[in-house]
Amino acid sequence: MKDKDNIFIDPAVSSTSELFALFYKNLFEKCFVKKGFYRALTEREKSYPTGLNTGNIKIAIPHTDSNMIIREGMAVAVLKNPVSFGEMGDPDNSLRVNIVFLLLIKDRKAKFYRILLNKIKNSDILHKIYKSDNSQALCLLLIKLLNT
Fold first, then answer.
1. Phi and psi for 36 in degrees, rounded to 5?
2. Pick from 71, 57, 73: which is nearest to 130 by CA?
3. What is the C-alpha to C-alpha distance for residues 148 and 145, in angstroms, rounded to an integer?
4. Is 75 helix (H, G, I), strand (E, B) or coil?
5. Which of 62, 65, 56 is nearest to 100 (CA)?
6. 3 state DSSP class of 7
7. Any idea of the CA torsion for 45, 77, 75, 62, to the nearest 10 degrees?
8. Residue 94 near residue 53 (C-beta atoms within 8 A)
9. Nearest to 81 by CA among 95, 96, 61
10. Are 24 and 41 a contacting pair, CB within 8 Å?
């Protein structure tokens, strides 16, 4: 997490597809992802939902197959107006998600995924992320969090 421009604080989106389109436009322009990333992300989310019920502040951790990734990283959206994601492990259940961590990982996906989950499952951390109103400050918080 080195790019504050990959952090979106309260973006003007009202659906998962709008959020994925925002992520795609930004990440494609910066050569993080390949053409076709949006479709791959959308299809994977339909097949394998990534919403997690983490209490009051719900999260999602979408990702695609590594062949869609050019440069590794992460994009984050903090949504004051939550969007719906299917719940991981219970795709028939829909969650209104407040924070989305989009993973851009070629290798070591499972290891980084576990590290991220272990760090952010703390409700105090999620609250700090959700209350962030500055992408630079949130970027620094995530760097500190993921490197300790």
1. 100, -10
2. 57
3. 6
4. strand
5. 62
6. strand
7. -20
8. no
9. 96
10. yes
pLDDT tens for residues 68-82? 999 988 899 999 999
CA distance 105 to 116: 12
Count CB-CB contacts under 10 A for residue 68: 21
- Given its phi and psi angles, is residue 3 left (phi above 0), alpha (psi -120 to 50 degrees) or beta? beta
Cα–Cα distance between 86 and 138 in angstroms, integer?
26
Alpha helix segments (H runs only) across the chain:
16-29, 37-47, 109-120, 123-131, 135-146
Interval 127-145: pLDDT, tens: 888 998 888 888 888 888 7
